[in-house]
Structure formats: structure tokens, C-alpha cells
Amino acid sequence: MGDRLLAGVCWLAAGIVAGGFAWLLGDIVMNGLGQINLMYLLMPVADAGRAGGIGPVIVSTSLILVVCLSVSLPLGLATAIVLSEADDERWFGRLVRRSLDVLAGVPSIVFGLFGYAVFGLALGLGFSILSGGLTLACMVLPILIRSIEQGLRAVPIDIRHAAAALGMQRWRTLVAVLLPAAAPGVLVGVVLGIGRAAAETAALLFTSGYVARMPDSLLDSGRSLSVHIFDLALNVAGGEPRAYAAALVLIVALAVVNLTAISLSERLLSSRINPA
Amino acid sequence: MKSTVTPIRSVVAESAPPALAIQTKDLAVHYGALCAVRGVSLQVPQQQITAIIGPSGCGKTSVLSSLNRLTDLIPGARVSGQILIDGADVLWPAYDPVALRRRVGKVFQKPNPFPLSIARNLDLPLRDQGVRNADERAGRIEAVLRRVGLWDEVAQRLDMPAQQLSGGQQQRLCIARALVLEPDILLMDEPCSALDPIASGVVEGLIEELRGDYTVVVVTHNLQQARRIADHLAVFWTSGDAGCLVEQGPAGAIFDSPKQAITAAYLDGRCC
Fold first, then answer.
1. Which of B99, B105, B163 sits opposite A274 (nearest CB)?
2. CB neighbourhood size of B255 (10 A)
3. pTM exceeds 0.90, yes or no
4. CATH 3.40.50.300 fits B20-268, yes or no
């Protein structure tokens, strides 16, 4: 009896979670799908977003993500390597790890203000795609570093010993053996990072701004999809239908990134698992 | 069981002593405050198979790991005494562990191929050693795969992930990977214990074939295996709180007439 009650409660909870997600997704699909066509994806924004398309917004979003990843990926990879190779007991590793935990818990609006103060004002980048991308890079670094580090640490110690027993140099072991073995972990980190960055609104309001024109360079302000949705939903009277359409585009884009990464990492993993 | 055996230096050789590939003097391995093994003066004759036997926890693996300084990788591990290879003490701080490990290869208990293709497992160490000519690398890879009897089984699928091979094949690949660098000495830590009996037999046969070309030091729990393959035997035991070497010498002599009571009891299966 007790078992069945517990099972019932668990199923109910799972049902509520799944149902909530289905409702949200259904709502967005039903309200958004009808407005999406090729023109919508390519045309410039018109009438504050009530008309036209989201072409420049997609370009700005992609540029912000490119800036974010091209800064955070090398930095994150290097830091993760240091953390995974360093002795656990060292104060340096502990300091970096503790800092990352704190960073991961900082609200995004604080990152926004930090980005505005440092990249926008102090470095003189103003409201620009560069400011926004760099701010997002700071934000996703903790996620990226932790998942890459975990990927590297998950490589069995036997493999490191095998490499050492062959007299292989440490950097060579890292590049040729450990990083390929940790590739699924790196991929997971990148996907989580893209997800967090693409969904971010608060940090971008202060940094990349919300100019909806097609950006000429990385120093132009550019509106990201999330900011576009926020603006349409809150500031533009009659903007809701178009907010739904933009939300659907964002969700589909994230789903595509996720599914690609999952299938890629499954392919990487399955090639290593002993079928016997 | 706490025995009262005292470590001995070595059994007096009855005939002319063979040339030694490795000689340790008063070797001890500590992990932090814990002493795993001490007072080991091991003699490993050249181009023979030396088996190290003894109960669990008597420091066999620690001694084996110290011989090519893989103990350097274990946090808190400390090795003292001397390990002489070609007259040089490899524990000397200036001795290059990379060069040492290319001369003294190791095969582990659990097969541990890199999560890469079969060919890449062998290609990588060769590249790292500076063999730039691709044809030369391919030739050496084929030769070493033939040597371990794996060539006919994998020649058509060298690009297959190594971890899709069976356990026995993986272990032979690991032996090939150690041999591809053409070491003088091969250390093996219970190389058959993770394998099924048939694969174990294949690997054991392979070890016997290495006799004469390589100096092999093999740690084994399997007394029958030691009897079958060993030319030289070293028996370890636990004395007090740490492991020690109780007896060493030609395998036949020790199996027939062990000089230490503890060895006799162990070989008879009367203790542990």
C-alpha cells in the first residue's frame, strides 16, 4: 500500500513537470508557428517588432554567441586543464574552484552591471555586441570549466599511467589522449554554455543593448533574441504574437544545438564502449 | 599472520651468476607515513623471466612500479634505496624518467588501451619518441602486432576503436604498445589476472616467447603460472608492518627446495 502510494506521488510529480513543459511548449508553438516563414527569419525588424522579421536579431544573437564562445572556450579549456592536472591539495586549485562556485551563483543582472561598468565604460566598448559577448563569456565560464574539468577527470587513471609508462610527455598525453577522451564532457559544457548564453536577457540589456538594426561591426549595439522577446512582451503594445514567434525560433535553435551535441557525444561514446 | 622472518639479501648462486639487468639495494616504498615494503635487494637477471610472488599486500606491485618510477605519479609515494640499471641509479633525481620508461616498459593488470583506434595506440608512442617516417612507423606497428599474435586478427580493422577488442586482445595490444618502443626491460603487473582462462593462456604463452629477447619482470598471484614461466623467482612476504623480500634465486631451485620455511609453506599452499 505504502509502496503504491509513493509510486503514485512520484508519478504525479513527474506528470506535473512533464505537463507543465508540454503546456509551455504547446502554448508557444500554437501561438508562434503561424507567423514563422522564411521572410520572418530574414526581414529586418519593422514597427518596433510588430511587423517585419527578425533577420538582424538572429545575426546579432549569433555574433554575441560567437564572441562569447571564442573567448570563453579557450580560457575555459585552459583553466579546466590546470584544475584537472593540478594536485587537489594545492591552494591555487582550491581558490579557483571556490571562485567559480561563487561566480556560478551570481545573478545575471549583476553580470550585466559588471559588464556595463568594465567592458562598456572602463574599456570604452559602449553598448556593443563585443561588450555583450564578453559579459556572457564571464557568465558561462564557470559552467564550461566545471564540465570540461569533470570530463577530463573522468578519464580513468589507468590511461594516464599507460601514457606515462610509455615515456609520453605530459602535454602530448593531454592533447593526443586525454582531450579526445574528454570530448563528450567538453561538448556537454559547450551546450550548457550556449544554452545559458542564448537564454540570457538581463546581462545583455546593459551591454549589447537593444538596437534592432543590422549590426555593421562588433562595436555596434545588437539586439539578441531573448532581449527581442523581452521587449515585445513588455514594452510593445500588441507585440505578444511576435514575441511568441521569436520564442519559438529561440527554442527550436536551442533544441537543434542540444540534439546535435547529444548525437555527436553518443557517437563518440559508442565508438569506445566494448560491445562484449 | 605476523611472521618473524627476517629479510635476506640473496640466495648464494650455485653457478656463475647471470648478468643483472636490474639490481635494487635496500629499496623501500612509503605512501605517506605507511611503509609498503622495505629492505628489498632484488636481482633481476638479464633476458630471463623473473616472477615476483607473494600474498596480497606484501609490496610486490609497489616494487614493480618503482622500477620505472611510475611511483612518481602517486601522490605521497616516496622511494628510497637504490635501483641500479646499467650501473646507474634511476632514483637519482637528475635521472630522466621519460628516458627510463622508454627503456623499461610496463604492462598493467587491467588492459588499458587508449580510447583511440588500434593503430593510433601504437602510432602515438612512436611519434612521441620521434619516429617521423610514416612507413617506418607502419612497419614497426605491423612487426609488433605480429609478435604478439594480433596481426591476423586485426590487420583488416586497424582503424577500429581499441576498446572494442576482447579483453585478451586488448591486453596483447597493450603488450604490443609497450614493445613497440623496443624497451630492454618489460614490467608486468599480474597481466593475466583480469582475463578469462583461455585469453590468460594466450598471454602467458606470449610472455614465454619474450624470453631471451627481453628482461621480463612479472608479478603474479598464480603459483602454477610462476612455475611454468619463471626462470628466476623472488618471494615477498609481510614482516611486521611492511612487505619484504624473503627469498630469491633460480625458480627451479626455490620450487624444489626452498631455503626459507615461510617460502616452503607458501609454495605448498599451507598458509594464506
1. B163
2. 15
3. no
4. yes
